[in-house]
Amino acid sequence: MALTTRRRALTTLGAALAGPLALPAADALAAERHGHRPRPLWRAHAHNDYEHPRPLLDALDHRFGSVEADLFLVGGHLLVAHDPEDLDPARTLESLYLEPLAARVRAHHGSVYRGHRRPLQLLIDIKTEGAATYRELDRRLRRHRHLFTTYAHGRVRPGPVTAVISGDRAARVPMEAQTERHAFYDGRLADLVPDAALVSTTPAPASLIPLVSDNWSLNFTWRGAGPFPEAERARLRAIVSTAHGRGQRVRFWATPDLPGPERDAVWGELLAAGVDHLNTDDLAGLEAFLDTHRAR
User: Fold this and answer.
1) What is the block-wise mean pLDDT of the chain (296 residues), using blocks of 10 residues?
2) How far is the CA of 247 from the CAs of 1, 163, 242, in angstroms?
3) Are residues 273 and 265 in contact, defined by beta-carbon separation less than 8 angstroms?
4) Which of 25, 64, 128, 237 has CB 3.0 to 4.6 Å from 99, enough for a Cys bridge?
5) For residue 259, what is the DSSP state?
6) At 105, which helix (H) or strand (E)?
């Protein structure tokens, strides 16, 4: 979409949002399996989670450990959608994610998955200007401060949900300036290897960047057909080793996602290399794959 068209759509919606809104909350709790608690699939990441019939809840029913929401700041409201023309005043970050997560954590006595203390990752992909959007998001997260993993004065305190900010890179500036925050930053492969020409540059710590994500298709030629080139396998494993050595997790987007042997081959190599999150729009497909491979 052209930039002028995007701006026009945002301006029009901003005017529509000028008045007060009565925004319905999403269903607070996903249905639990009676008498049976299968382990969460912490490596499963629901790409564009909000496009499923029941945002968040479908991913939780499939036991995913990470969900992704694209975020627009429009007229002071934080709306979830893929493109400006899809924006709906009723589809807010609060109604689709924050409120149902808070209700679920209350019902489960402090965790998203009953009996499992590990945080769910909420990846928030900012689509509007990063600094302004993050400042508004920060205000919303503080309303749910007991829900989120927190960074305060050099220390990280885990919570039921860890918010990680992706998308527009300008969000990093206000985040780095905070001595206390309720979100973290999604790095890129360039953050693993700082520019050698900048002597003062050092890798950002995991307390700011716990996750390093990048585009698979821009870094690897292999799409799952035929053998994985050894040089690319070695590069993948070096990336994971470097990140893990710094306490950071790894995710790639734009991996093959059509059901078939190519997708399974790529997922298998990602698991073997220790990649922390597998990206998909196919909730049932990845759930079945991880159960088959006993990967959690």
Assistant:
1) 47 42 34 61 98 98 98 97 96 98 97 97 98 98 96 96 98 97 97 62 89 97 98 97 97 98 98 98 98 76
2) 38, 17, 9
3) no
4) 25
5) S
6) helix 99-107
Q: Name the E strands within 75-141.
A: 77-80, 120-126
**Cα dist from 117 to 159, 182, 227, 266, whole Å:** 8, 18, 38, 30
Cα pseudo-dihedral 214, 217, 219, 224, rounded to 10? 110
Pairwise CA distance, residues 296 & 293, whole Å: 9
**CA distance to 4, 286, 292, per residue, from 43 (Å):** 38, 10, 14
Other beta carbons within 10 angstroms of residue 215's beta carbon come to: 13
User: Tokens 């905070």, residue?
Assistant: 178
- Extract the runs of DSSP E, i.e. beta strands, from the chain: 41-46, 64-74, 77-80, 120-126, 150-152, 155-157, 161-167, 180-181, 184-187, 211-215, 249-253, 278-280
Give me 27's structure tokens: 């269903």
- In this structure, is the dihedral angle defined by the CA atoms of residues 47, 52, 57 and 63, taken in order, positive or negative? negative
Instruction: Name the token pair of 256.
Output: 């093959």
- Determine the 3-state secondary structure of 112 from DSSP: coil
Q: Do the strands 180-181 and 150-152 form a parallel or antiparallel pair, or are they unpaired?
A: antiparallel
Question: Would you tell me the crossing angle of helices 261-273 and 230-245 to the nearest 10 degrees?
Answer: 40
DSSP SS3 for 115: coil
